[in-house]
């Protein structure tokens, strides 16, 4: 079944929205200094295993790979200020 341009555009918008929310979560994990979450460790393990077996990454994987840095970089300063303000209120 061939997809239309409208279907592709909708899929890309959904993918980018999901990645933004997911990378917001990654940013919060980084700011908490608790290490990476289990899902990201699992995904890294699968990627390493599949790459050794000759697996091929899909388009969504490639988009995620290239957007994780910029999206997390966008959220780090915003959430860093918010978390610092929250911690200072708790400590007062």
Descriptive notes:
By secondary structure, the protein is mainly alpha-helical. Helices cover 83% and strands 0% of the residues. The protein is built from three helices and no strands. It has helices spanning 5-32, 38-52, 59-91. Helix 1 (5-32) packs parallel to helix 3 (59-91). The longest helix is centred in the last third of the chain and has 33 residues, at 59-91. It is flat and about 60 Å long. The model has no long low-confidence stretch (mean pLDDT 75).
Provide key terms for this protein.
92 residues, mainly alpha, 3 helices, 83% helix, flat
Element-by-element helix/strand order: HHH
Number of helices: 3
* Strand residues, percent: under 5%
Count of extended strands: 0
Oligomer: single chain
Radius of gyration: 17 Å
Q: Taking all residues together, what is the mean pLDDT?
A: 75
| Helicity, as a percent range | over 70%
Structural class comes to mainly alpha
Report how far the terminal alpha carbons are from each other: 60 Å
Uncertain runs are none
Shape: flat
Largest sheet: none
């Amino acid at each position: 079944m061939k997809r239309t341009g409208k279907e592709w555009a909708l899929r890309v918008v959904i993918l980018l929205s999901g990645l933004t929310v997911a990378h917001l979560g990654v940013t919060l994990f980084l700011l908490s200094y608790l290490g990476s979450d289990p899902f990201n460790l699992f995904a890294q393990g699968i990627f390493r295993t599949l790459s050794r077996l000759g697996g091929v990454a899909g388009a969504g994987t490639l988009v995620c790979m290239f957007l994780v840095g910029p999206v997390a970089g966008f959220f780090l300063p915003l959430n860093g200020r918010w978390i610092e303000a929250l911690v200072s209120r708790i400590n007062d």
